Amino acid sequence: MVTLFFKNYPIEVDYVSEKLRIYQNENKLLKRVKKHEVFNISLELNKPYMFADVEMTREKKSSKLLLDSGNTDSIWLFPTLIPGFNYNRPNIDDYLGAGFSGDIYGKRSRIHGLYFGRFEFITPLVAMPDATSIAHLQLVPDRKGSIGSEIFRRFNMVFDYPNEKVYFKKNKYYDDPFLFDLSGLEVRQDGLTWEKDLVEVETKSRNTGGTNEENVYSSRENFQYKFTLKPKFVIAGTRKDSPAQLSGLQKGDILVKIDGKKTSDMTLSKINKILKSQEGKTIKIEVERNEDPIIYYIKLKDPIPYEEH
After folding, report:
1. Residue 238 and residue 212: Cα distance in Å, rounded?
2. Which of 43, 110, 117, 247 is 20 to 30 A from 49, comparing alpha carbons?
3. pTM (2 decimals)?
4. Based on the structure, what is the number of domains in the chain?
5. pLDDT digit string, tens, across residues 147-156
């Protein structure tokens, strides 16, 4: 149904308000995109493609890229499809995600820049799947990679499939830095667990003493246990030679606290934000392993800072 709407109507994606708007009136659309920058797209195999300049180090190359809102990365590039491709250094081997045909592996690094129109992104993160991971993909001619939602979320966008156009306008996220997990921890939610909290309640006691049998009420503090279903987070893996792996954290450890705050009161997004927060920062991580509590300290480090060549 979503694909049908995109095919037949212009769709606005507002990443700030997290809303979609469907335009059936062309005049309203034209008024809405008056301050947007417009780009031509091509629809191939029912998916949108546009050209952007990719600058690995110093030379910009016009590249045909899929506009892939389902991809959480900034950019994907396919090394086997780019003649003379050289990996920027430093780079790391990494798990890139899950596809229809299984897990996708490859490398992560940074490039000097991505450019289209008046928009430019300096030292964005790039994922580069290996040849095995993309062997099953049905690729359109001349495609070099994808632009993902880490770029898109910095804009108010309108996809106009009927007229083969896309509109971009900066939003408040445009200048956000491109952050990478600095800990080497891969965290996943492992269902829910009952958690017991001691909460304060107010009760009233009745006093019938006194000669006039008058009812007197007084307040006193009391406590009782409250049971709540909360998320449980575990370590799904650690990146090779990362601060997390070198500290001794292991796959299967239950994540209990980060810097003294319970992870059960957090979301996965909040945890990942902390793990990307600031290079050089030391984080206290409390885990449970075989029902034993263990405390680790890890110092956040960017494994792929951009280096001029």
Report:
1. 73
2. 110
3. 0.78
4. 2
5. 999 999 999 9
